[in-house]
Each structure stands twice: as C-alpha cells, then as structure tokens.
Give the backbone structure.
Amino acid sequence: MGELRGQPLLNLLEREIALHSRHIAATLAPFDPTSASMAWMEALRSVEEFINLPLFGLDDPSLERALVTLPVANCLAHPRRLRAVRHFIAYRYGEAFAQRFTTLLTQAAAIAMAFAHNGRMEAASGFETVAHAVGYFQSRRRHLVSLLYTMPDACCGGHAVPPIDVLNNFLPLVELHGIALTGLYQQRMLAEAFDDHALLLNGNDYRGIREYPALDAFFLVLQWHFLNSGNLPLDMA
C-alpha cells in the first residue's frame, strides 16, 4: 500500500478530475441541450416526489409499509400491490402524480437490470425495494442536480432525449463519473485545507486519511426506519 501527499497528491487528483470531466462532456455532447435539460428536469421532479412521498406524504402505516417494501427491479411481478399503491397515490395526490411515480418506478426497474447486467452490483442493489431506491436517489441528489447545471453548456448536438429514456441515458454518468468527481473534489479540498492530508493507495483504489461526511445522521435514521418497516398487511401481499 502506497501513500501520496502534498503536490504529488494534488497532481493525481487534478488528472483524475480532468479524466472524469472529459467522459461527462463527451457523453453529453451529442444531445440537444433543450430536450436533454427539459427531460432531466422532469426526471428530477419525479425523483423529488419519489423521495418525499414515503418520507413526508403518507399518514397510513399500512400503506407506508406496502409502498416502501414494494420490489423495484421486478415490480411488475407484483401487480396487485402495485395497483393498490398506485390507487392510493392517485386518490391522495392526483392521477398525474401517480403516473409520474409509476413511470419512474418502471424506469428504475430497467436501470437496475442494466446496472446488474454490466456488473454494477452495488448500484443495482440500490433498487431492491422502494425503500432502497429512496436511499439511492437521496444519496445522489446533489449529483443529479449538478448534471442538470452541466447540460446547457455540455450538450451541443442535435439528438433529442425522449423522457422515457432519460434515466438510461444519464444516470450511468452520475454513477460512473459524477460520484467519482465529488469524491475527488472533496479530497482536493481536504488536501488544500490540511497540509498533512494523504491518500492511501491500494492498486486502483484509494482512501483518504480524512473523510467529508456529505449526508447527516437524519438520513441514516430514515433509511433504518424504511428498511425495518415490518411485514405487509395481507391485502397487500
């Protein structure tokens, strides 16, 4: 295991930041900036609703359990539960809200299968249930918004982005490069703030001797609550 600190550390971080930035720019370049930005903005709206519904929008414990334990990757294999959850959402928040929720759910199922097919098992596991998907989207919220800010300048082509394909087109960018960029910038910040900051190198992996916690403890409490939400009522099984 090696160690880097000082200027060699900063040089490595700058090279890695440039590499991931080029990948993002090259992937976004063929797309039309207007359709890409609008489609991604609509996806962000759906993601926010997807997160906030179980966190703040339900006052029925049975419905909450039915929702958060609903499988994502094979949600269509549970049509009765899906119909029941959708019915309650539409009754409470309207048909348009329910349609956005179920559309994002089916898109999430597709991207989960794509992640698994390409060996991204950690990302795929983020879509095991709705509770897992809420945690996945919550932990990547700032990356999703950052990608939106990038699109008007980085997208400079003519390919339109159909809304139904927006997650397949852009979520892998967040997963493969956006998260890495955030970690690299955080390490650069720590290296500039602390003269003795170092990276411990182990092959292609690295770990800083300091970490910057991006999520607060409240997020972890909510995740624990969802993932330990109990059994389903019989009429939702």
User: Anything to note?
Assistant: The radius of gyration is 20 Å. The chain is about 70% helix and 5% strand. Confidence is low (pLDDT under 50) at residues 230-237.
